Amino acid sequence: MNRINRQSGIGLIGFLIIVGLLVVIGTVGLRLFPVYTQYMTVISVMKDVSAESGAAGKNVRQLWGEVDRRFQINGVTHVTRDDVTIVEQGGARSLRVSYEVRTPMIANVDAVVSFDRSFTLSE
């Protein structure tokens, strides 16, 4: 009975590469998670404000007042007044939010995430 010893499993270098990749993926996920959760809050607020009856008849200042109040309640910090505009297309008015978020990732590497969404104002 002549047996050849075989090793099975992963080596130290392979293990370190896998751990390194998991650390990078985890870091990216943890850094971008708050940005996207805040985006979901922005979308929810914009949908609510644009769906209110008579929203199409309000001016920019009135709409921004409602949006800003809800942003303050929900802790939205990335969106400013300049990021929210009213766009008129084909006779219909839309509330548009367009902004960028820069978040630090690792060392001197930053991630820039752009958001742009429009919601039709209800009559």
Architecture overview:
With 123 residues, this protein is α+β, with helices and mostly antiparallel strands. It has one domain. 45% of the residues lie in helices and 27% in strands. The chain is built from 2 helices and 3 strands. Strands 1-2-3 form a 3-stranded antiparallel β-sheet, covered by helices on one side. A hairpin with a 2-residue loop joins strand 2 and strand 3 (109-120). The longest helix is centred in the first third of the chain and has 40 residues, at 12-51. It is elongated and about 85 Å long.
Low-confidence stretches: none
Number of domains: 1
Largest sheet: 3 strands, antiparallel
Helix/strand-derived category reads alpha+beta
Q: Give the terminus-to-terminus CA distance.
A: 87 Å
Number of strands: 3
Rg for CA atoms: 24 Å
Side-by-side strand order of the widest sheet: 1-2-3
SSE string, helices as H and strands as E:
HHEEE
Mean pLDDT: 89
Shape: elongated
User: How much of the residues is beta strand, in percent?
Assistant: 25-35%
Helix content: 40-55%
Question: Count of DSSP helices?
Answer: 2
